[in-house]
Specification:
alpha+beta; endopeptidase fold (from Nostoc punctiforme); 2 domains; five-stranded antiparallel β-sheet; 5 helices; 42% helix; elongated; transmembrane helix; LRAT_dom; lipid metabolism
Length: 159
C-alpha cells in the first residue's frame, strides 16, 4: 500500500531539485514558543527528510510533504567556504542520528545546528546562533534595566 505522502513528497523534492544530502528549510509553527519559525532538515531521498524535532527533542525521519505542511520550502546553500562531507556521507550521518534524543536550545541545539553538523561536522556556521544568543542577552539586559528604572521611578513618586 502506497503512503499518501509519497507522491506529494517526491513532487516537492523534484520541484526543489533536491538531491540526497541537501539541506532544506521551511516555515513551521512551533508550539514550544508559539510562533512561526524557520526549520531545517536534510533531504535523504525518496521524498523523505531527517530533522531534529524541536517539539519532541529527537531526530526523526519523515515525508517531506508532512514536515513542510504547505509552508514555503527552499534549498539552503552554505555561505562561505566550508569543508562538507559527500552527499552520501551527509545522508549516512543524518540517518545515523534517527531516534536519538537531544536537549533543545534555541541558540545552540536546534534543527539548523543538526543540519549543519550533518553537512560539515560543525554545528555552528558563521556565528548565526552566537549572534542570536548575544542579541537575546542584550534584550534581557534592556528589559531588566527598564524595569529597574520604572521601579525606582515608582518608589520616588511614593515619597
Amino acid at each position: 500500500m502506497e503512503d499518501s505522502h509519497l507522491k506529494p513528497s517526491m513532487e516537492l523534492a523534484e520541484e526543489l531539485q533536491a538531491q540526497p544530502g541537501d539541506k532544506i528549510s521551511y516555515q513551521t509553527w512551533s508550539r514550544s514558543d508559539n510562533s512561526l519559525s524557520e526549520h531545517h532538515a536534510i533531504y535523504v531521498g525518496q521524498g523523505k527528510v531527517v530533522h531534529y524535532n524541536d517539539e519532541r527533542h529527537n531526530v526523526v525521519k519523515k515525508w517531506l510533504s508532512q514536515v513542510a505542511a504547505g509552508g514555503k520550502v527552499k534549498p539552503v546553500k552554505l555561505k562561505g567556504t566550508f569543508t562538507t562531507f559527500s552527499q552520501a556521507e551527509v545522508v549516512k550521518r543524518a540517518e545515523g542520528q534517527v531516534g536519538r534524543s537531544y536537549s533543545y536550545d534555541l541558540t545552540f541545539s536546534n534543527s539548523q545546528n543538526f543540519a549543519n553538523w550533518c553537512q560539515t561536522g560543525k554545528e555552528q556556521i558563521g556565528g548565526t546562533q552566537v549572534k542570536t544568543y548575544i542579541l537575546g542577552l542584550g534584550a534581557v539586559a534592556a528589559v531588566v534595566f527598564l524595569l529597574h528604572r520604572f521601579l525606582k521611578y515608582r518608589k520616588c513618586l511614593r515619597t
